């Protein structure tokens, strides 16, 4: 039955009532690009708070129930959070404070501490309720700084305020930045009591208090982004060393990545961001930026060919020597803003190469780009991306298999490449025959031999874990498939690290793929590398371990069959790329070939080998200086002493310290513009 129209003011009043089921209940709505992705309801009765979070995207479902009590100084005294994490691992976390002793436990952690003063416990699985309570505790503190458990300190800064009007209602909200939880401050809009009102989550989700029209999010988002950019621009201004004169590196060993050889004792000159001379004998030029690189190795800057960038990622990437990045999927406005920030030099970050993201409209659609309702609509989306300078299209798991051949033809007619997940109920070989130029993720290669799999669901992870080790990689069928990939020049972006990590992670244990870095990270970042992602049953634990080994065997087979590979991450920027290359070497690929997957081959794929990817006269000065020779020891990539991007120089130790990360290696001294030392050992 059609409902009668409701006058606007009455509708607003009803919506307002709906958002407060009683005086102490607040509801929130999570929006993705095209609709509602989830909700959270928080109810407070005296000093008792309870909440329920339900959020879904693609095949991931996050469901958390929380209860906690609030004591003096707005500090939680008893807390319990339970539910299911996005990939299915169970969550059960508790905290208590009794007689001055704090205790916490979960499936991943257990600890205690004597509490001599107010300390706020930050749960590993946090919610909007806890986020609001932390802000309330910070507001209650005179200097807006409180100690955290298990470790650390949080600080609150007010960055902006805004008054929203809707009908006869007005709401003043405050943009707060909370530092000390992650690598950069966390921003959100709160009311005067400290309850969250709304926030932007990097363009993927936006959160708004229910009862307020979604149109308010745009103004809130713009001002939140502006404040976040101010922080990153300050970071860039403090840590970008800009040489106004030519740059000379003396006595440096150069990696010829194409030949796989080391050229010793060279002199390299950079002018206007380009390599202009490489010499066996000293180059003399007065008033230049000089770097004595004796005993060190210079190689081309690294590429990450599978990123979903945020503005902050550029700093982490640059510190690790990752200068060029292919963004494989992002909301259009987000990636265009990031590209502009990097290109302008206002924010640290290298060159960005954009792929347009597409999925078919469905319950399991990934809504980070555009969703198609028909083949013709999908072609229109391709045209839209082509007109805006995107170099390729990445399709996702809900695409219709029968669309792919005509869609590939249309993509190629626009001079673009096609890559992506293999659509549900389609095999990788069928996708290649339909016109795919590239396959994302190593699991898709294994699933090719597992029959009809609904890759829209977690089966694309669990089938891999339970059965990948059963595939005979020496079989004629596997060999023929890999030979087909090689003969057609199909590029594979394996993202091996994230899949190995997913298979190997266990409750209460450190992720083995990131064991080399966690002690350098802030405590609340480090905690995210403890515990399982998938709910692996005990009877399948051995299967998952053996399947993780099978991933490396498949990587080796790709190399043996001469399938083009590019290194990509789909994970924590910088660090994941370095681990990816270590895993290739661990699989048995020679180091020289490993380096090509992150230098020469990516430059070829994006059509930029004439300007980058190798150390050659006339090419862009995208360079990293290492303490060690990566042709002999791939872990030398972790000992980056300096990063050069054109006329900009970056000291990795300073970048890491600015993010709260303990440096891995001291950077080299630099005499900038021939005048003063700006860095010393």
From TrEMBL:
Query: Which GO molecular function terms does the record list?
Result: hydrolase activity, acting on carbon-nitrogen (but not peptide) bonds
Signal peptide residues on this chain, from the entry's feature table: 1-23
Give any Pfam family that matches: Amidohydro_1
Going by the UniProt record, its keywords in alphabetical order are:
Signal
Q: Where is the Amidohydrolase-related domain?
A: 298-639
- The answer to keyword Signal applying to this record is yes
Q: Gene3D superfamilies, from UniProt? A: Metal-dependent hydrolases, Urease, subunit C, domain 1
Q: What is this protein called?
A: Imidazolonepropionase
Organism for this UniProt entry: Microbulbifer yueqingensis
């Amino acid at each position: 039955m059609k409902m009668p129209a409701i006058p606007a003011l009455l509708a607003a009043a009803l919506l307002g009532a709906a958002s407060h089921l009683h005086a102490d209940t607040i509801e929130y709505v999570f929006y993705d690009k095209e609709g509602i992705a989830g909700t959270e309801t928080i109810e407070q009765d005296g000093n008792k708070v309870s909440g329920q979070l339900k959020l879904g995207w693609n095949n991931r479902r996050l469901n958390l129930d929380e209860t906690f009590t609030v004591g003096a100084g707005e500090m939680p005294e008893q807390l319990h959070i339970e539910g299911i994490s996005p990939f299915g691992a169970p969550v059960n976390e508790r905290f208590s404070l009794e007689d001055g002793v704090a205790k916490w436990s979960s499936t991943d952690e257990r600890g205690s501490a004597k509490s001599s003063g107010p300390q706020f416990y930050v749960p590993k699985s946090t919610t909007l309720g806890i986020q609001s309570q932390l802000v309330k505790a910070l507001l209650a503190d005179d200097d807006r700084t409180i100690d955290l458990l298990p470790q650390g300190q949080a600080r609150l800064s007010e960055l902006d305020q805004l008054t929203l009007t809707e009908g006869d209602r007005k709401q003043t909200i405050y943009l707060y930045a909370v530092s000390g939880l992650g690598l950069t401050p966390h921003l959100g809009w709160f009311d005067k009591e400290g309850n969250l009102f709304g926030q932007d989550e990097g363009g993927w989700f936006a959160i708004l208090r229910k009862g307020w029209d979604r149109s308010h999010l745009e103004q809130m988002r713009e001002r939140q982004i502006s404040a976040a950019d101010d922080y990153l621009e300050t970071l860039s201004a403090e840590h970008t060393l800009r040489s106004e004169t030519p740059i000379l590196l003396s006595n440096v060993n150069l990696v010829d990545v194409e030949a796989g050889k080391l050229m010793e004792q060279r002199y390299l000159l950079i002018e206007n961001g380009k390599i202009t001379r490489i010499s066996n004998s000293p180059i003399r030029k007065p008033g230049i930026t000089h770097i004595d690189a004796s005993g060190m190795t210079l190689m081309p800057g690294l590429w990450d060919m599978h990123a979903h960038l945020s503005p902050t990622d550029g700093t982490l990437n640059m510190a690790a020597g990752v200068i060029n990045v292919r963004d494989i999927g992002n909301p259009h406005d987000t990636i265009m803003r990031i590209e502009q920030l990097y290109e302008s030099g206002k924010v640290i970050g290298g060159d960005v190469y954009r792929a347009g993201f597409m999925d078919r409209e469905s319950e399991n659609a990934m809504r980070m780009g555009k969703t198609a309702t028909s083949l013709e609509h999908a072609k229109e989306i391709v045209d839209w991306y082509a007109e805006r300078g995107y170099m390729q299209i990445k399709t996702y798991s809900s695409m219709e298999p029968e669309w792919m051949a005509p869609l590939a033809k249309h993509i190629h007619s626009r001079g673009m490449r096609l890559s992506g997940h293999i659509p549900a109920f389609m095999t990788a070989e069928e996708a290649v025959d339909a016109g795919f130029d590239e396959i994302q993720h190593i699991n898709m290669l294994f699933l090719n031999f597992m029959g009809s799999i609904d890759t829209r669901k977690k089966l694309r992870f669990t089938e891999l874990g339970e059965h990948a080790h059963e595939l005979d990689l020496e079989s004629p069928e596997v060999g023929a498939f890999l030979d087909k990939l090689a003969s057609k020049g199909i590029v594979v972006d394996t993202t091996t690290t994230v899949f190995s990590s997913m298979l190997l992670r266990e409750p209460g244990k450190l992720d083995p793929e990131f064991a080399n870095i966690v002690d350098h990270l802030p405590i609340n970042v480090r905690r995210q590398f403890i515990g399982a992602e998938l709910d692996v049953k005990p009877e399948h634990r051995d299967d998952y371990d053996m399947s993780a080994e099978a991933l490396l065997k498949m990587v080796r087979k790709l190399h043996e069959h001469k399938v083009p590979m590019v290194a990509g991450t789909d994970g924590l920027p910088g660090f994941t790329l370095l681990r990816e290359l270590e895993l290739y070497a661990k699989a048995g690929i020679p180091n020289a070939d490993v380096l090509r997957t992150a230098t020469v081959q990516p430059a070829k794929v994006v059509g930029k080998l004439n300007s980058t990817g190798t150390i050659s006269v006339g090419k862009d000065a995208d360079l990293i200086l290492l303490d060690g020779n990566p042709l002999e020891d791939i872990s030398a990539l972790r000992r980056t002493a300096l990063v050069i991007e054109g006329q900009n120089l970056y000291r990795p130790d300073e970048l890491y310290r600015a993010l709260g990360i303990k440096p891995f290696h001291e950077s080299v001294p630099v005499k900038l513009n021939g005048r003063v030392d700006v860095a010393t050992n």
